[in-house]
Amino acid sequence: MPATNVRRAGVVGSGTMGAGIAMNFANAGINVRLVDASPEALERAGAHIAATYDAQVARGRLGPDEAEQRLARIARSERLEDLADVDVAIEAVFEDLALKRDIFARLGALCAHDALLATNTSTLDIDAIASAAPEPERSIGMHFFSPAHVMKLLEVVRGRATARATIEAAVALGERIGKIPVVVGNCDGFVGNRMLLGYKREADFAVLAGATPARVDAALEGFGFAMGPFAVSDLAGIDVGWRAKHERIKRGAAPPFAVSDLPDAMVAANRLGQKTGQGYYRYEPGDRARRPDPAVDAIVAAERARAGFAPRHLGDEEIVQRCVYALVMEGARILDDGIATSRGDIDTIWLHGYGFPRTRGGPMAYAEEIGVASVLATVRTFAVEDPAFWRVPAALERAAESGRFEPAATE
Question: 57, 258, 266, 327: which could form a disulfide with 363 (CB 3.0–4.6 Å)?
Answer without folding.
Answer: 327
